[in-house]
Amino acid sequence: DGGITQSPKYLFRKEGQNVTLSCEQNLNHDAMYWYRQDPGQGLRLIYYSQIVNDFQKGDIAEGYSVSREKKESFPLTVTSAQKNPTAFYLCASSRDPDNYGYTFGSGTRLTVV
Amino acid sequence: GQSLEQPSEVTAVEGAIVQINCTYQTSGFYGLSWYQQHDGGAPTFLSYNGLDGLEETGRFSSFLSRSDSYGYLLLQELQMKDSASYFCAVDSYSGAGSYQLTFGKGTKLSVIP
Asked: How much is the pLDDT for A17?
């Protein structure tokens, strides 16, 4: 079955360490997105990529970095510069950049201690 | 920038009808989407309105008025499994072939017997 795989589901890291969250899709979608979800805050866009080897900053990109070397993969690195990294991170994809029906992964809950 | 307003919580009785409203302010408006998210889970796409009017998908309907910057999600014949958070999301065009989906903070629906 096609879908988006995010791993791991739960991740613990020490403060000051960089950590990379994995996102892989086998839907053959062109566009991929990273959102952060905090309680009562909804989903906020971190980065998005509409095509391989290209990506754009979202609303809260500071302290994060991404790469899009393959169509299937869009990893997110949470750097030590991110002031409050503990959150639920969701990866999504869409067939085209203007396709509104996003498919989401099951998320990674990152806790920094 | 984009902003969306929706009620934070709604409670309704099993078998009843509930309406979740969403008002928005945005530039480059393209359409309004609705997503459902159960606790700890991934958001799933419910419906999309690109034009004014009502879209019906089974027990769920969604309405858009572009002139009023307003939309709503209507859930009929409520079931206990409909207890979840519901997000409206504005699809907007930001130029150079770039689209973004901006989410509201979500409405937590509790269905009671």
From this structure: 92
Determine the 3-state secondary structure of A79 from DSSP: coil
The mean pLDDT of B4-30, rounded to a whole number, is 95
Q: Which helix (H) or strand (E) holds B81?
A: none
B65 touches chain A (CB under 8 A): no
Question: In this complex, do A100 and B103 lie within 8 Å of one another by their Cβ atoms?
Answer: no
A1-10, A20-29, A87-96, B76-85: least confident range: A1-10
**A33 touches B: beta carbon within 8 Å:** yes
Residues B1-22 as b or e (16 or more Cβ within 10 Å = b): ebebebbeebebeeeeebebeb
Which contacts of A58-64 are long-range, i.e. CB under 8 A and separated by 24 or more positions? A58/A33, A58/A34, A58/B100, A59/B1, A59/B102, A60/A36, A64/A34
* Residue A73: pLDDT over 70: yes
Mean pLDDT of B23-47: 93
